[in-house]
Predict the structure.
Amino acid sequence: MSPFFSKRRVSFVSGALLCASLVSACSSREPAQGLSARGELRPQAVATTQSAPKDEADRFVRAAPPPPSTPASEPAGKRRDAAAARATAAESEAYAPAPSEAPAALMAPAPEMRRAAPAKGALGASGVGAGGHGVASAPLALQQPMEKSKKELADDKSLSEGGNTFEAYKPNAFTETAKDALSTFAADVDTASYSMARRYLQQGQLPPTQAVRVEEFVNYFKYRYAPPEDGAFTVHLEGAPSPFNARRQFVRVGVQGKVVSRSQRKPAHLVFLVDTSGSMASSDKLPLAIESIKVAVKNLNENDTVALVTYAGSTRDVLAPTPATDVKKIHAALDTLVAGGGTAMGSGMETAYKHAVKKASGSVVSRVVVLTDGDANIGPNLSPKAMLSSIEKYVSEGVTLTTVGFGMGNYHDSLMEQLADKGNGNSFYVDSMKEARKVFETQLTGTLEVIAKDVKFQVEFNPKAVSRYRLMGYENRDIADKDFRDDKVDAGEIGAGHTVTALYEVELAGDAPQELATVRIRAKAPNGTEAKEQAFPLTRANLKPSMEAATADFRFAVAVAATADILRAAPAAEGWSLATTQKLAEGAVGGDSDRTEFVRLIGQARALTTASARGN
């Protein structure tokens, strides 16, 4: 055989072997219909299973057509350009069942949703921890336009659960009073964690342990604290024996901010910064965000103004500062918004702040309100640290920030919470029109009118009276004891009418003296630079002889905090029972609808916990 034909034969045989190998590899990697290589549902197969909570207030959300949204099983951080989004939408229509038609198995609680805290892991560019659903196997069209730097990845300590990312905080342990008598933390009135957990439960899943922040559960509810007769706030102290451990007591520090009526508050300039990227196309994201803004506008005053900025692949000024009374013009601008493109959140933040700072003054409340699923995948500022460093100068000039989260499947809770903390504002999560009305209608005045800033708490326990103590929650609000009187150290804000509640679990000494602790609160006036300090004694007279003898507000707050500790698998709550917290909450509802809903949620958590324990 001639050398020419010999070479051609070898080439042909080699090519045939290569093709056979590729076919074999593809066949071995091809999963069963509707499943990924890891046995997981394909994204398009569950594109609509992350439905909004089943309550009548969500009819508006459900009425919208199936969107090309990021499904719950899809990795956090994944984004599409407009063409890819349209392709995904077409696939979803072809393969995805409607929420009402979804198989029951898809809506069942995932087996991994147990009450054991996950190990901490770093996130890659997709925002998914090691062993999670990275984007390495995704088609090139789905890769992020810009990856995070190594330094940003090192700073990112978030964890991913079902595509959503959360910051993992280690629950506070008991502290020996003789070794450290001081407990110092910043005020927090955020509520996003509770709303997110509620959505998980209403969809048949236990919330991820790292998604539960005790203080945001407790502060979601209103408490009937007497308002101050003078000054910015009053302090209410109370304690009672624990229903879980006879050797321990629960102690509550409650703060009530002064109430400022809608007509009394300062004029407000709100810059709504709306995420219109492709990931916001879901009916529980951009459409719900638009309706939320309309609720807010309806509740503004004649002297208030509104501006609208959007960001996707680029930033766009949609509406110049407009009187809130010009509802028709504002609504017309809102109704033009559509979702598509990447997510240049950092650039959008800087643009919104530049608008807001123009009207910032001691006589005007200037606030940026971000409405987003919290993702950021293109642009110069991808991490919370990078975003805040670019807008720090605006924060120092008095511009405050509210972050409002929407949707599930790629929700970046950790980013939203950190931005609100550093931006001197609040973080909320809106899962329904009911919640939108609560945030933008009921709580609007308090959100806008800050009555005290850089509010710090320091509780000094008497070692002769208290042998050990544990602060329930506030792990991400911890402040070094030495920084309590350092007025340059940033802390939390309290708005008009807001309540702040913190609970401790303590063990009393055998022959405890009358004074158990001293509660100190340090805060600045809204436009002040120097803080004032107040001190309040906690004595045995503040302790009730039994939990039944305590006020309804105290019993309910304990029930909420204990439930949160159980859901996040706090070591100190090992052996605690949801049945006990449910019974405690039931006796303190007092006709309040939010409290009634909470009791139902505990029942759902109990059922899911039981099912998980049985392996169902």
